[in-house]
Amino acid sequence: MKTLIACYSYSGHTLKVAKKLQKEIGADLTEIKTEKDRWYLLKILDSIREKKATIKPCQTDLMNYDKLILCCPVWAGKTPAAVNQYMFDLKNIKDKEFGVFITSGGNRSQKATIQMRENLDLQGMKFLGQMRLITKDVENEKYGEIFPLFAGKFKDPKSENSKNITE
Ligand SMILES: Cc1cc2nc3c(=O)[nH]c(=O)nc-3n(C[C@H](O)[C@H](O)[C@H](O)COP(=O)(O)O)c2cc1C
């Protein structure tokens, strides 16, 4: 049993952290991708209104996993619509543990992490930890003290073989 990292990333920063985390903890990684791109303003509006977006097939069934890390950029202080859809599509998650992490341009608001925590709590998952990183720090590979602390909550010494799950 191992950890699944589910990552939505539009311009690569969140994915960069997700891949580093994947290496560190020996997790599988699935990328959440939308079927269609939307204009910048529509991305903002969809996030504010907590809408969902059609996503490409990815790993949503946690049958073979005991932990989930869900990660994404902050959009308009909130989660992107693709992530809202992913949380809706999740299966076999009850009583499993989860963590969330976000990257953001500078906004210190935790609204997006709260949104994910509340959604997954309501679906019966158990919260393990959260992390927030700033885009610039990700670019400069300054992950800070929080990174090993967060990773440590998901480390499984037995699972060394990680894989990338695509469609
Ligand atoms: C549509 C859109 C909305 C954004 N809204 C915010 C915001 O409200 N607060 C913030 O700090 N950064 C905001 N950002 C910046 C991203 O959260 C940040 O650059 C993030 O690290 C990008 O991650 P990615 O490269 O994985 O997509 C926004 C970016 C986009 C494209």
Automatic annotation (TrEMBL):
Protein name as catalogued: Flavodoxin-like domain-containing protein
InterPro entries: Flavodoxin/NO_synth (IPR008254), Flavoprotein-like_sf (IPR029039)
Taxonomic placement: Archaea, Methanobacteriati, Methanobacteriota, Methanomada group, Methanobacteria
SUPFAM superfamilies given in the database record: Flavoproteins
PANTHER family: EXPORTED PROTEIN-RELATED (PTHR39201), FLAVODOXIN-LIKE DOMAIN-CONTAINING PROTEIN (PTHR39201:SF1)
Pfam families: Flavodoxin_4
Single GO molecular function: FMN binding
Source organism: Methanobacterium lacus (strain AL-21)
Domain Flavodoxin-like, first and last residues per copy: 2-119
